[in-house]
Structures are given as structure tokens and as C-alpha cells.
């Protein structure tokens, strides 16, 4: 057995070791824990200063796990395991022997031979050694076995770290709390309570400068190609940052692209930035003061709502005759469409995406159908606003028509019944909440169609559609009088030629006339009346019947006037019928003798014109004789050919031009004589002898002259020109032309002889008419004189 003194020293040494291990372990744990706090706290602050974001949760979780593992490892290896370790007496003795050499191995020897059986001598020796070890132990201090410097240093470090942490905890409890929320509690937004700045991002959407927020997933759907107007507003309870930067990431087809812009301040706490013509998705970050959004805002570019096609299903008025076209869809290929007035039609529009609401606008109304609110549970409704001429709302009406009848099942198409009518204004004024469809619109209505889709995007520009209402115009009547002048006899029959046309067909046509100053328009039916034709010809030669207005039944008197025109009406039974008339012809009634005298005057003028033509042709004949000698020299003497060629060419061209001029004038005289003949027939002053004489004596010879003899002479002059170019036979061609011109002159002389004979007879008739007129006036003067004498005789009595 060891001596009690040795056991006591060893026990004391064992306790000192455990005390040292305990103090060292506690100091080390405190130092490491405090160091971990300061390091992680500094990492968090530095990261926030540069990124303005909280440390990633995964990183903080990794740090927490590392802290726990490190502290647990230190506690286990430097504290618990060392404290729980058993210290054998031999190990303690060796440690003391090593620390205190003056023991001279007595202590270890005593411990080594503890409990061994030995001889008496050996026992005596061990006992002596044991006493010497006890004596030596009483002279040493066990505490000197430990070097206090490392423990003191570690304790000082732990104390300093702990004190600074304690002071910091008192001075900045919020910082310690933030550290605990970050690393111990693992909160997501642990910096939020400590931020000085807070920003909110929104979008100024068009049209209408609507401020729109990003949704709960921080997504905003933006119409492709339009400008993105961003608004950043500072929280009123927070400090306004001096500057706000916008970082964005563009997801282009060729890869991503980053950008940065400094937003412009507009007012207190408000910053704006515009990104032009956005066609790709964007991710956005705001940086202002100590604020930055943790998750990016996403701008998702989508197509704006557009109308792909517009078609019309039309129900035309029956009178237009367009019933056969009602099964044909009218496709609107431009911005306007024309329809007959009173046409009911269904406007069908196909869009590129599902719609929330459709807004139809014009100058006089606004019609909206669909969902108004932004929430998904908002109800569909149809509303109508009627506007005055200044665009001010007069009425607001709610329409009860079911919305299902206006949209397709997937809401990618809509339809609306309309009718273009002249009575739209009256129908609008009479409307109340019981609005029925089709909705009336006036002619030339300009519709603007605004779309609002399910992505809460409005169409950037309205689709414009001009609906032109084609009013059924009055018939167009193009008529002319033929075969009569403005002076007619009371037995005349007036031919009227022309054409009547209408948009959708004629119902009837007639003659309308007024006598004198009477305002009453009398009617006489046409011989051939229209039967719904769109184009009706008066005096159609294929029928063999001609429209004439006979004056004999009217029993007109000489000196009276007659106003005559052709009238027509269309088949428009909705807004008509429309009645129109053609040109109004005015006629004066004269006696047969007076009309004959006027016709004779015209015939005399025609004869004088024809005599002038004959004189000019005679000059052509004489010039041919004069040029014969020059043509002979041209053909026979080449030496003078160059000198004579221009003269002959000028002569031939001048003669040919003169001949053709005379030919044209002669045709005009023939036409004039035919008109004289028609006037005689249409006025009832013709006789068989008169007609035969003018036909055989004047018109027939003129026809031969114009259709044969002038053409023959023209050919001869053309032959002269050709021979001159060929430089041969010019004299022969001139000699061939002379007989043709002589034939012209002979025919003209025969015609002039007949004209003069007619003039002699007409002169006799005119002299007789003048004698009769003088006798009539003399009788009137005699009668007036007799009445005057009788009046004065009775007065004297």
C-alpha cells in the first residue's frame, strides 16, 4: 500500500490537472464561440454592404452546422474527454518525476512496486524509498507542475472576446438579434427591420397611364414592342435614397445580356426609367441606399391583343335584289366597308388571344362588353353610353343580352349585331334600359375597336373600321331631244332618247310636263316602262318602238310654252321611293308656217355653206392644172427634181388637207339636212312630195358625194404623195386626180341646183306667208279702228 501522503499528493495532482483542463476548455469554448460570432457577424455585414441582400439561407445553415460541429468537437476533445480521462498513479508519478528531478525516481519506484510481494530486504528498501519520496514531496509545490502562461493567454483572449461581445450586446442589441435571426433562427428577411430604405417597383401601363403592380410572383406581362415605363417609389416611412440604379437581364434569342441604368428622380421619393421597344423578357433589380430586391422582378413579353380578321354576315334589304349574296361572307380587307342602307349585319372578329373585354367606340356611342374588374371573379356585363355631338354622355344604359352570344367559347372571337340605318338618331333617342339588337348605327360610322385581353393588356392602337352606308340614290336620267328644236308645232310628236339607271332597280318611269307658268307637273306613261331593271334604255332600237311625246292631245295654242322631262322612281320602300327627273326641255308652240320659215332660213344657211365648199373644191381643181407642168418637169428632168420636189410635196399635202376639211364640212351639211327632214316629220308639216324631194334631191346625192366621190378624190391625192416619194409617175397621178375632182364638182353642182330650186319654192312660200301675215295685221288694225270710232261716237251722244 502506498503511503497516505503519496496518495494525497497524487490525488491533489489529479484534481489540479482536471481543474486546468476545465478552465482551459471553458476558455477555449468561449474564445471560439466569440470568434465565430464576430467572424459570421462581419461576413454578414460585409456581404450586405456590397450586395444589400441577406446571406443565402443555405450558406447560413452551413455556417450554423459548422459552428455546432466545431464547438461540439472542441467541447468533446478539449473538455469532456479530457475531464473524463482516468489518471493512473504511475502516469501521475512519471509526470511529477519529470517536472521535479529532485524526486530522483523515488516516487515512481514507490508507485511501481505498490502491492508487490518482496523479501524482507527488498521491503525494507522500498519502505526507505517511500519515506524519502514523502519527504521530497513535502518540499515541492504541486501547482508548479503547470505552466500558467497558455491558460492565462487563452483566458485573456476569451475574456476580451466575451467582454467585447457583452458590451456589443448592450450597445447593439439589434445587431446581435439580427445575427441570431440570421444564423440561429434561419429567418429569410432578417435585415428588413434594420434597413433604412424600402422601394417598390410598378409599371406605368398604356393606354391611360395606368399604374400596374407586379403580381404575387413578381411577374408583369408587357405588350411586345411597346416602351416599358418603370416607376420606383420609396416607402413614406423610410428614408428616400439619393440614387436608384436599375439592373436588368435581357433574355434574347442569342443569349442573355446585362444592363444598368440610373433612374431619373421625379418628385420626392419617386424615380422613373423607360426602356424603349421591349421585345424580350427582362429580369429587374432595384438598388437604392441599402435596398435591393432579393428576387428579380420578371417582365414577360407577350403579344398585345389584335384583330386578325373581320367578316360581316349581311342581311340586305329585299328591294335591292341582293338576297342571293347573303350567304357570301363579306371580308373586310381594308379599314372600310360599304353596305346598302338598312342592311343588318353581324360583325365577326377573330383575335390572336383570349379577351377580357371589347370596347366599341364611335363619335356618338360607346359599347362595352366583357369583364371590367381585374379580379378573375369579376362578372361579364354589357353597357352602352350614348353621346351627344360634342362627345358628352347623354345616357348610360345596361344591356341585358347574354354575354355568351357575343363571345366564342374560348373568347378568341367576338361578334356583334348592327344595322346601318337612316333612323339611327331617332332610335338612340328612344332607347331605354331595354336595348334590343341589332344596334343601329348611322351612315359613315367610324368604329374604333379597343381590346382588353386576359393578360390585362390593352390594344396599343384601336382597330378602325369605317362602315359606309350607301344611300339608295335617286335614279340617274340622261336624256336628250332628237329630231326637234325648241320651236315646235301643236301637232308635233317629240322623240326623247336616253338612258335611266338606278343602284338597285327601277320601279317606274313617265313623262312629266308643265304648260306655261303652271307649276303642276302632269304625267304621261311611257310606251315601254321599266320592270326592275338597273339600266333602262329609252328608244331601244331592238324593240322597234320609240318613246314620243305627242302634243296633239294637249290642244296647245300658238305662243304657249311646254316644259317636258322624263321622270323615274326606284324600288326603295324603306327610305323612299326616290324620284328624279332628267333634263327639262322647253318648247314654244308656233304655227306650221312659222316653223317652215325658220327651217327655210336654216336651209339657206346650209346652201351658202355648201356653195363655199364647192368654191374651195373648184380652187383645188384649178391648182391641179397649174401643177401639171411642174410634175412633168419632175418626171423628165432629173436636174430640176430636187428643186421641184419640195414644191410638189407642199402642194399635195396642202391639197389633201383642204380636201379632207371640205369632206368633213360636207358630212356636217348632210347631217343637218337629215335633221331638217326629221323636224318636218316630227312636227307634222311634212308631205310625201316634200320628203321625196329632200330625200332624192339633196340627202341621197350628198350621201353619194360623202361616201364615194370624196373618198375617190382622197385616194388620188394619196397616190400623188406615194408617187412623189417613189420619184416616178407624178404627172400621171395628177392627171388621174383631175377626173375625180371633176366628178366632185359635177355632183356638187347638181346638189346646188336642187337647193336653189328648193329655195325658189321656199321663197314663194315665204312671200305668201308674209302676205298672209300682213293681211292678218291689216284686219286686226281695221277692227281696232272700228272699235275706237264706235267708242268715241257713243261718248259724244
Automatic annotation (TrEMBL):
The chain crosses the membrane at residues 21-41, 61-81, 154-174. It comes from the Bacteria. Keywords: Membrane, Transmembrane, Transmembrane helix. This is Uncharacterized protein. The lineage of its organism: Bacteria, Pseudomonadati, Planctomycetota, Planctomycetia, Planctomycetales.
Amino acid at each position: 500500500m502506498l503511503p497516505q501522503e503519496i496518495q494525497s499528493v497524487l490525488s491533489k495532482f489529479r484534481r489540479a490537472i482536471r481543474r486546468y483542463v476545465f478552465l482551459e476548455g471553458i476558455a477555449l469554448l468561449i474564445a471560439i464561440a466569440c470568434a465565430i460570432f464576430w467572424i459570421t457577424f462581419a461576413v454578414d455585414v460585409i456581404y450586405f454592404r456590397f450586395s444589400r441582400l441577406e446571406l443565402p439561407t443555405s450558406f447560413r445553415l452551413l455556417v450554423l452546422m459548422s459552428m455546432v460541429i466545431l464547438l461540439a468537437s472542441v467541447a468533446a476533445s478539449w473538455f469532456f474527454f479530457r475531464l473524463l480521462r482516468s489518471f493512473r498513479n504511475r502516469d501521475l508519478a512519471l509526470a511529477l518525476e519529470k517536472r521535479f528531478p529532485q524526486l530522483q525516481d523515488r516516487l515512481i519506484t514507490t508507485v511501481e512496486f505498490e502491492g508487490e510481494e518482496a523479501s524482507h530486504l527488498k521491503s525494507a528498501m522500498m519502505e526507505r524509498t517511500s519515506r524519502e519520496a514523502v519527504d521530497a514531496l513535502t518540499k515541492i509545490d504541486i501547482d508548479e507542475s503547470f505552466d500558467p502562461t497558455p491558460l492565462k493567454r487563452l483566458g485573456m483572449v476569451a475574456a476580451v472576446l466575451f467582454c467585447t461581445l457583452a458590451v456589443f450586446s448592450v450597445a447593439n442589441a439589434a445587431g446581435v438579434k439580427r445575427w441570431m435571426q440570421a444564423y440561429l433562427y434561419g429567418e429569410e428577411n432578417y435585415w428588413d427591420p434594420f434597413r433604412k430604405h424600402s422601394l417598390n417597383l410598378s409599371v406605368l401601363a398604356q393606354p391611360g397611364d395606368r399604374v400596374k403592380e407586379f403580381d404575387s410572383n413578381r411577374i408583369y406581362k408587357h405588350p411586345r414592342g411597346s416602351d416599358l415605363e418603370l416607376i420606383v417609389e420609396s416607402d413614406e416611412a423610410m428614408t428616400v435614397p439619393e440614387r436608384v440604379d436599375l439592373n436588368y437581364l435581357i433574355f434574347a434569342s442569342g443569349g442573355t445580356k446585362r444592363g444598368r441604368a440610373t433612374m431619373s428622380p421625379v418628385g420626392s421619393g419617386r424615380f422613373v426609367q423607360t426602356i424603349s421597344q421591349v421585345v424580350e423578357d427582362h429580369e429587374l433589380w432595384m438598388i437604392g441606399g441599402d435596398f435591393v430586391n432579393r428576387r428579380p422582378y420578371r417582365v414577360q413579353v407577350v403579344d398585345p391583343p389584335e384583330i386578325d380578321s373581320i367578316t360581316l354576315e349581311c342581311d340586305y334589304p329585299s328591294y335591292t335584289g341582293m338576297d342571293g349574296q347573303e350567304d357570301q361572307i363579306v371580308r373586310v380587307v381594308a379599314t372600310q366597308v360599304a353596305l346598302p342602307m338598312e342592311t343588318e349585319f353581324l360583325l365577326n372578329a377573330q383575335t390572336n388571344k383570349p379577351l377580357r373585354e371589347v370596347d366599341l367606340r364611335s363619335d356618338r356611342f360607346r359599347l362595352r362588353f366583357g369583364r371590367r374588374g381585374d379580379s378573375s371573379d369579376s362578372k361579364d356585363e354589357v353597357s352602352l353610353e350614348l353621346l351627344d355631338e360634342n362627345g358628352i354622355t347623354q345616357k348610360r344604359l345596361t344591356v341585358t343580352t347574354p354575354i355568351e352570344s357575343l363571345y366564342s367559347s374560348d373568347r378568341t372571337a367576338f361578334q356583334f349585331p348592327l344595322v346601318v340605318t337612316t333612323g339611327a338618331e331617332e332610335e338612340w333617342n328612344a332607347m331605354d334600359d331595354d336595348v334590343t339588337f341589332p344596334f343601329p348605327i348611322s351612315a359613315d360610322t367610324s368604329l374604333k375597336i379597343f381590346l382588353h385581353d386576359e393578360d390585362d393588356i390593352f390594344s396599343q392602337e384601336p382597330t378602325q373600321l369605317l362602315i359606309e352606308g350607301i344611300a339608295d340614290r335617286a335614279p340617274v336620267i340622261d336624256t336628250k331631244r332628237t329630231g326637234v328644236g325648241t320651236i315646235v308645232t301643236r301637232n308635233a310628236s317629240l322623240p326623247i332618247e336616253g338612258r335611266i339607271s338606278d343602284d338597285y332597280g327601277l320601279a317606274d318611269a313617265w313623262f312629266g310636263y308643265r304648260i306655261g307658268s303652271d307649276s303642276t307637273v302632269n304625267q304621261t306613261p311611257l310606251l315601254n316602262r321599266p320592270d326592275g331593271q338597273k339600266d333602262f334604255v329609252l328608244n331601244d332600237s331592238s324593240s322597234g318602238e320609240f318613246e314620243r311625246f305627242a302634243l296633239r292631245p294637249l290642244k296647245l295654242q300658238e305662243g304657249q310654252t311646254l316644259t317636258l322631262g322624263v321622270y323615274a322612281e326606284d324600288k326603295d320602300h324603306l327610305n323612299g321611293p326616290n324620284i328624279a327627273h332628267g333634263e327639262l326641255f322647253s318648247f314654244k308652240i308656233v304655227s306650221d308656217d312659222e316653223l317652215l320659215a325658220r327651217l327655210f332660213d336654216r336651209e339657206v344657211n346650209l346652201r351658202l355653206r355648201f356653195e363655199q365648199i364647192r368654191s374651195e373644191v373648184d380652187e383645188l381643181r384649178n391648182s391641179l392644172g397649174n401643177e401639171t407642168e411642174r410634175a412633168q418637169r419632175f418626171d423628165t428632168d432629173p436636174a430640176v427634181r430636187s428643186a421641184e420636189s419640195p414644191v410638189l410635196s407642199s402642194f399635195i399635202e396642202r391639197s389633201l388637207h383642204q380636201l379632207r376639211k371640205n369632206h368633213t364640212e360636207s358630212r356636217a351639211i348632210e347631217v343637218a339636212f337629215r335633221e331638217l327632214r326629221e323636224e318636218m316629220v316630227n312636227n307634222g308639216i311634212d308631205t310625201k312630195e316634200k320628203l321625196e324631194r329632200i330625200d332624192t334631191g339633196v340627202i341621197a346625192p350628198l350621201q353619194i358625194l360623202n361616201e364615194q366621190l370624196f373618198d375617190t378624190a382622197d385616194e388620188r391625192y394619196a397616190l400623188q404623195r406615194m408617187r412623189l416619194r417613189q420619184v416616178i409617175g407624178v404627172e400621171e397621178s395628177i392627171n388621174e386626180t383631175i377626173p375625180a375632182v371633176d366628178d366632185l364638182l359635177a355632183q356638187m353642182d347638181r346638189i346646188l341646183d336642187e337647193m336653189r330650186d328648193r329655195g325658189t319654192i321656199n321663197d314663194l312660200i315665204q312671200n305668201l306667208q308674209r302676205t298672209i301675215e300682213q293681211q292678218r295685221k291689216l284686219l286686226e288694225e281695221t277692227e281696232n279702228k272700228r272699235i275706237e270710232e264706235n267708242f268715241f261716237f257713243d261718248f259724244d251722244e
